[in-house]
Amino acid sequence: MVFNTGSTLLDAIVLSVVSKEKDGTYGYKITQDVRNAIDVSESTLYPVLRRLQKEECFETYDKAIDGRNRRYYRITEKGNAQLSLYRVEWKNYSTKISNIMLGGKEND
Predict the structure, then answer these.
(1) What are the residues whose beta carbons fall under 8 Å from the beta carbon of 72, sequence distance 6 or more?
(2) DSSP state of 79
(3) Taking a C-beta distance cutoff of 8 angstroms, is the pair 57, 82 a contact?
(4) Phi and psi angles of residue 8, each rounded to the nearest 5 degrees, phi first
(5) What is the pLDDT of residues 42-68, one digit of tens each?
């Protein structure tokens, strides 16, 4: 992607990916799902997961898979509230940018 992805947009994408799984999802799968939208490395993504957990947007639990523990991330009520805010902001922002970039009329 040519455009730089800021930390707020990355937070919104990660929250959205995790919110799609009721029982939570694990780091590698989150990385793969995020990579469907933007190019991001695991070394970039794991600090985001830890920060969102610290901000109480995620809760974590470990599950043994093939003899190894896998850390799962599940969105919290606070995370869902933050995601809702991001979705409203994204809709407004993306509409305005699309109107400028694609030549549509601006909607106030």
Answers:
(1) 23, 24, 25, 26, 60, 61, 62, 63
(2) H
(3) yes
(4) -65, -45
(5) 888 999 999 999 999 999 999 998 889
- Count of C-beta atoms within a 10 Å radius of residue 74: 16
In this structure, what token pair is assigned to residue 14?
A: 């990660």
CA distances from 46 to 3, 34, 51 (A): 21, 12, 9
Beta bridge partner(s), residue 61? 72
* Six token digits for residue 85: 């805010």
Give pTM, 2 decimals.
0.86
Q: Which of 62, 52, 63 is nearest to 14 (CA)?
A: 52
Q: Tens digit of pLDDT for each residue in 4-55?
A: 778 899 999 999 999 999 999 999 999 999 999 888 888 889 999 999 999 9
Instruction: List, in order, residues 6 or more apart from 33 with CB less than 8 Å away.
Output: 17, 20, 25
